[in-house]
Amino acid sequence: MIRAVFWDNDGVLVDTERLYFQATRELLQRADVTLTEELFQQISLREGKSAFDLAEAKGVPPVEVEYLRTERNRRYTELLQGGVPVMDGVREVLGLLQGKVTLAIVTNSHRTHFETMHEATGLLSFFDFILTGDDYALSKPDPEPYRLAMHRSGCRPHECIVVEDSERGLQAALAAGLRCLVVPNGLTRGCTFRGAWRILSSCREIPGEIDRLGGMHGRQQG
User: Fold this and answer.
1) What pairing do the DSSP bridges indicate for beta strands 179-182 and 198-199?
2) Phi/psi class of residue 219: alpha, beta or left (left: φ > 0; alpha: ψ in -120 to 50)?
3) Residues 6 or more apart from 115 whose CB is under 8 A from it?
4) CA distance 140 to 173
């Protein structure tokens, strides 16, 4: 029986991964570093590290790297303010699950970016709680975010399922002892998702996978 569903945010609920890639690539170009999609996938989406490590490896002074990172965050915020699309099927699936299971967002995003991207999505009312990168010391692929989510939900590992789009997110879920449904997006479709419970073509398949795991607990709102 499933009592909680933990959702990643970027690339799962909202289509923001390419905006983050764009902002990071633009600022690294100032340091004469070319960030390709393949490098971004490997460093950020698989390993959960910073693409600005490429600038450090090239000998850019730490103070300049930090300035570039700050400017990337500013540029990313600027791009988010233009509005972000909700991923296909998300609103419908959340409507089906709300009130029947605990719904939570577990993201590496900084809260300021998170709040900016959701100013007009209308999604946050579906969720019982939200954990951003400001809520834990170690980000995905470390299991701390999902361990904290379990603690907040009061659920045991077999009562939870995670929805992710990246290898780092999958690794975090597995390290926390959780089953993980992966819904790849354009930037992660070529990744290897070894250990995933299922790899789905759409989040619309999530309710069916929950049924296969014994259905939902049937928690009532309030």
Assistant:
1) parallel
2) beta
3) none
4) 9
Length of the chain: 222
Residue 146 tokens, joined = 């999902």
The pLDDT value recorded for residue 44 is 82
Q: Find, among 143, 200, 203, 135, the residue nearest to 169 by Cα.
A: 143
User: In terms of Cα–Cα distance, which of 96, 126, 143, 98 is closest to 13?
Assistant: 126
pTM: 0.89
Neighbours of 70 (CB within 10 A): 11
Domain boundaries, the chain: 4-15+86-212, 17-80
Contact residues for 220 (Cβ-Cβ < 8 A; gap 6+): 99
Q: For 123-173, how does the pLDDT look when each residue is reduced to its tens digit (9 = 90+)? A: 999 999 999 999 999 999 999 999 999 999 999 999 999 999 999 999 999
Evaluate whether 166 touches 191 at the Cβ level (below 8 Å): yes
CA distance 88 to 91: 8
CB 203 within 8 A of CB 93: yes
What amino acid occupies position 207?
A: P
φ, ψ at 198 (rounded to 5°)? -150, 150
Q: Give the architecture-level CATH label for domain 4-15+86-212.
A: 3-Layer(aba) Sandwich (3.40)
38: pLDDT strictly greater than 80 = yes
Specify the residue for token string 């570093």.
33
